[in-house]
């Protein structure tokens, strides 16, 4: 964001398990720092300590410099979380499948334990398995997408309806208005002719007397 002050913001992760899947908008207003979780649109106030630090959601922010009113920053703690992630072992023979050293070629207990994480009900946040968490994520995204599509369609219909009402009240059809002008002009000329004829008849009657 293009800010007017010389305030700066630094950020680091202090507790990865508490980090939320959201971006943040951090703005300075009324001599206070306001933090907005963009995913849920919730806003709260934070107060830096004597060292300019503040902690929330597994993050630690450090404020330096002097901000101006309405200065703001956008923080994306998880947007590039897996950009540099890579597979360290590409040879399946090097995967430690056995649970103990010298346990035998048929020991696959370590591999089975890894596989069980997929369906273990306490793998994600101590309450969900990978399968359940993925299904919940897909369902949540689908519901939000459907809601946004419905909202967009509804708002579009409202805009169309309001536009039609506005046009019915103040809209001007130039062809229709030009036709009316021509018709009114003809009425004026006809009335002028009637008045001229009536005036001639009136003068004739006066002369007869």
UniProtKB/TrEMBL annotation:
Q: Which residues form the Flagellar basal-body/hook protein C-terminal domain?
A: 168-208
SUPFAM superfamilies with a match to the protein in the record: Phase 1 flagellin
| MF terms (GO), sorted A to Z | structural molecule activity
Q: Name one GO biological process term.
A: bacterial-type flagellum assembly
Q: Which compartment or compartments is the protein found in?
A: Bacterial flagellum; Secreted
**Which Pfam families does the record cross-reference, listed alphabetically?**
Flg_bbr_C, flgK_1st_1
Keywords attached to this Swiss-Prot or TrEMBL record, sorted alphabetically, are: Bacterial flagellum, Cell projection, Cilium, Flagellum, Secreted
Annotated Flagellar hook-associated protein 1 D2-like domain residues = 1-77
* Predominant location category: other
Taxonomically, the superkingdom here is Bacteria
Coiled-coil region(s) = none
Q: Membrane-spanning residues where?
A: none
Q: Which InterPro entries match?
A: Flg_bb/hook_C_dom (IPR010930), FlgK (IPR002371), FlgK_D2-like (IPR049119)
Give any Gene Ontology cellular component. extracellular region
The record's comment on protein family reads:
Belongs to the flagella basal body rod proteins family.
Give the protein name, as stated in the record: Flagellar hook-associated protein 1
- Its source organism is Escherichia coli
Lineage from the top down? Bacteria, Pseudomonadati, Pseudomonadota, Gammaproteobacteria, Enterobacterales
